[in-house]
C-alpha cells in the first residue's frame, strides 16, 4: 500500500501538565498523491526547505593579498586582519542562517532511563515499513542520545475516529493500555479514509520525557517529519530514521543563534584590536630605535672639525676644574 504524499503542511500541538502525559497532533498536508506515482511517492518536496546558496567570494581573496602587500605598517596589518575576519564571519553567518529553519535554543540533558532499549517498538498495520528490524535498530540512536524510548504506531483507517481530538485521545489511551513506562515518545500515524491522502499524526510523551521532548523539541520533530515525509527519494525506513536521528542531533546540542555569533564576533574583534595595538606600538618603537641607531652611526662617522675639537677641549678642562 503506498505511503501518500503532499506538498505542504503545518502542525498543531496540545500541552499538558506535569501530572499527565503531554500529547498533540500534526497535519503534514491534504494534497492527493499523483496518479501513477511510485509506491513511496509522497509528493513534491516542500519549497521552503530549499535555499539559495551564498554568493561566491572569489573577488575577496585578491583584495586581501593587495592589502597585505601594500601595507607596511602595523595599522595596515590590523585593518587587513579585521577585513579578513569580517568576511569570514559574515560567510559563516550566511551559511549558518541557511539552515536556521531547524534550530534548538535550549540546553537539554539526557534522561536517565532505567529501562533498556526495546527493539519491539514498531507497530505497522499499513505495511509501510519495508524492514521493521532495520528501523528498530536505527531508532536506537535516538534512545542513546536522549534516553527516550521511541515507539512508532502506523494505524489503519478507523471510521470511528472522525476528529483530531478523538485521535489525540486515542493515542493517549493507547499509550496507557500498551506502554508500561513513562520514558517513551509515542508517534501515531492514522491512515486517512482516502489512502492517497496523508493521514493525521499524533504524539504522546511519557511523564518523564517532557524535559527533553518539550514543545520546541516536538516542533523540531514535526519539522523533520515534514521535510523527510515529502522526499520521494526516501523509503519509509529512511524517513523515520532520518527524522529521529536529526531530531536527536538538533535538540541535544544547542544551536548557534545570531546573538551567539555577535558575541563571538565582539570578543574576537576585541582580541584582534588589542593584538593589533600591541603590534603597532612595537613596530613604532622598533622604527624609532632604528632611526636613533642610524642617527648615532651617522654622527660617529662624521669627521670632527676644529670647532668640535675646541669644544671637547673646553669641556674636558672644565671638567678637571
From TrEMBL:
Gly residues compositional bias, start-end: 1-13
Keywords: Membrane, Transmembrane, Transmembrane helix
Transmembrane residue ranges: 74-96, 261-282
Region Disordered: start-end pairs: 1-57
Designated name of the protein: TPM domain-containing protein
Amino acid at each position: 500500500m503506498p505511503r501518500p504524499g503532499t506538498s505542504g503542511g503545518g502542525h498543531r500541538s496540545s500541552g499538558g501538565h506535569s501530572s499527565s502525559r503531554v500529547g498533540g497532533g500534526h497535519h503534514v498536508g491534504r494534497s492527493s498523491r499523483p496518479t501513477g506515482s511510485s509506491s513511496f511517492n509522497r509528493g513534491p518536496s516542500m519549497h521552503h526547505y530549499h535555499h539559495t546558496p551564498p554568493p561566491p567570494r572569489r573577488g575577496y581573496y585578491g583584495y586581501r593579498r593587495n592589502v597585505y602587500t601594500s601595507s607596511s605598517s602595523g595599522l595596515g596589518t590590523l585593518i587587513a586582519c579585521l577585513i579578513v575576519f569580517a568576511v569570514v564571519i559574515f560567510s559563516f553567518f550566511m551559511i549558518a542562517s541557511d539552515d536556521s529553519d531547524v534550530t534548538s535554543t535550549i540546553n537539554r540533558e539526557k534522561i536517565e532511563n532505567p529501562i533498556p532499549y526495546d527493539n519491539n517498538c514498531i507497530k505497522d498495520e499499513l505495511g509501510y515499513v519495508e524492514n521493521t528490524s532495520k528501523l528498530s535498530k536505527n531508532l536506537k540512536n535516538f534512545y542513546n542520545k536522549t534516553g527516550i524510548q521511541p515507539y512508532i504506531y502506523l494505524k489503519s483507517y478507523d471510521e470511528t475516529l472522525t476528529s483530531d481530538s478523538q485521535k489525540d485521545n486515542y493515542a493517549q489511551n493507547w499509550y496507557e493500555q500498551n506502554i508500561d513506562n513513562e520514558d517513551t515518545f509515542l508517534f501515531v500515524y492514522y491512515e486517512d479514509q482516502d489512502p492517497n491522502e496523508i493521514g493525521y499524526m499524533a504524539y504522546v510523551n511519557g511523564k518523564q520525557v517532557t524535559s527533553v521532548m518539550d514543545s520546541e523539541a516536538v516542533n523540531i520533530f514535526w519539522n523533520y517529519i515534514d521535510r523527510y515525509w515529502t522526499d520521494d527519494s526516501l523509503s519509509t525506513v529512511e524517513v523515520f530514521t532520518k527524522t529521529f536521528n536529526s531530531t536527536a542531533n538538533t535538540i541535544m546540542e544547542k544551536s548557534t543563534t545570531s546573538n551567539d555569533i555577535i558575541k563571538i564576533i565582539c570578543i574576537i574583534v576585541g582580541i584582534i584590536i588589542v593584538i593589533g595595538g600591541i603590534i603597532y606600538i612595537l613596530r613604532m618603537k622598533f622604527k624609532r630605535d632604528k632611526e636613533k641607531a642610524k642617527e648615532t652611526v651617522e654622527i660617529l662617522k662624521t669627521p670632527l672639525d676644529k670647532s668640535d675639537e675646541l669644544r671637547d677641549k673646553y669641556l674636558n678642562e672644565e671638567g678637571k676644574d
